[in-house]
Write a structure and sequence with these properties.
This protein is α/β, with parallel strands linked by helices. It has one domain: Nucleotidyltransferase, domain 5. Helix 1 runs antiparallel to helix 4, helix 6 packs across helix 7 and helix 9 crosses helix 10.
Length: 267
C-alpha cells in the first residue's frame, strides 16, 4: 500500500493571541523512515555530544545547551544541519496554515467542543488548533489526491499538546465524514491514522523547525542583526515549492457564524 506521512506542529507565540501557525511536511512513508529519520539521527542528534531531540525553543536556551554540553555555535550548527537535511528531501511538501488567533478566539467565543461521549460540563473553548488542523488536513489530502493519485492513505503525526490533542483525535475521527459533507467525498478514502508524538519523534522535530522560523520571519518587516542567520536559514526553507494558506478574518467569522454552540468530532 502506498502511504504518505504528514508530520505537523503548531506555534502560538508567547501570549497565544497573535499569529497562530499549523505547519508541517507531507511525503512518502519510505522517504521518512528509510532516509530522513536516519539522517537526522546521525547528523543532528548523535553529535558528539548527543542531544535527545532538536526543539528550537530549547536549543536556543542556555540551560538546554549547558545540560547537553553544546556551545552556542555548536547549537547553530545542529539547526543548520537540520535545515540542510530537510532541503535534501525533494519529495517533502511543506504546508502551513496561518490564522489571527485573537480574532479566531473572539469569533468562536460562544462555541465549545466536547468529546463524543463526554458530559456537557466537560466542554472546552474552541482553540485555533482545531480549525487549523482541519484546514491543514484538508489541504494535505487535496494535495496528495491531486499530485499523487497512486497514494492510498495519508497518516498524520501531530506533537502532543495536553488535552487539545484529545480533541484533535476526535476531529480526526470524523474527518472522512466531514469531507463528504463539504462535497469532497473523493478525499475521504485517503484519511489514514493519526498518532501523537513527543519532542523525541523526529518528524515532529522537522515540523518544529519550520514553525519556529516561519513564526518569526514570514511577516517580518525588518530583521535585527543578531537574527540575520536565522532569517537566512528560513529563506532556505521558504524558497521551495509548498503552500502557505491564510485563514483570513472574514473567512474565520463566516465559519464561526455557522458553528453550533457545542460540537463534537467534526465541524
Amino acid at each position: 500500500m502506498a502511504i504518505f506521512i504528514s508530520a505537523s506542529d503548531e506555534h502560538s507565540g508567547s501570549d497565544g493571541r497573535g499569529l497562530f501557525l499549523f505547519a508541517g511536511y507531507v511525503g512518502p512513508e519510505p522517504d521518512w523512515s528509510h532516509f530522513f529519520v536516519p539522517a537526522w539521527q546521525e547528523r543532528v542528534l548523535d553529535g558528539p555530544p548527543n542531544i535527545p531531540y532538536l526543539h528550537m525553543t530549547e536549543i536556543r536556551s542556555q540551560e538546554f545547551r549547558d545540560k547537553w554540553g553544546l556551545s552556542g555555535v555548536a547549537a547553530d550548527d545542529r539547526v543548520d544541519e537540520a535545515v540542510s537535511i530537510i532541503n535534501t528531501m525533494g519529495s517533502f511538501y511543506p504546508i502551513a496554515i496561518a490564522v489571527d488567533a485573537s480574532h479566531l478566539k473572539s469569533a468562536f467565543r460562544e462555541s465549545k467542543v466536547r468529546r463524543a461521549e463526554a458530559k456537557q460540563f466537560e466542554a472546552k473553548p474552541f482553540e485555533p488548533d482545531y480549525l487549523c488542523f482541519l484546514a491543514y488536513a484538508h489541504t494535505v489530502l487535496d494535495y496528495v489526491h491531486e499530485k499523487h493519485p497512486h497514494v492510498e492513505k495519508v497518516d498524520f503525526i501531530v506533537e502532543r499538546k495536553g488535552y487539545i490533542t484529545r480533541y484533535i483525535n476526535e476531529f480526526h475521527s470524523g474527518l472522512a465524514k466531514a469531507l463528504t459533507s463539504i462535497g469532497r467525498p473523493e478525499l475521504s478514502p485517503l484519511v489514514g491514522e493519526l498518532s501523537t508524538g513527543d519532542k523525541d519523534r523526529i518528524p515532529c522535530q522537522a515540523a518544529d523547525v519550520l514553525c519556529w522560523h516561519a513564526a518569526r520571519f514570514e511577516n517580518a518587516q525588518e530583521v535585527a542583526s543578531q537574527d540575520i542567520h536565522d532569517a537566512r536559514r528560513y529563506l532556505k526553507l521558504r524558497n521551495r515549492k509548498g503552500l502557505w494558506f491564510d485563514l483570513n478574518n472574514d473567512l474565520v467569522s463566516e465559519m464561526a457564524a455557522k458553528m453550533p454552540a457545542s460540537t463534537d468530532n467534526t465541524l
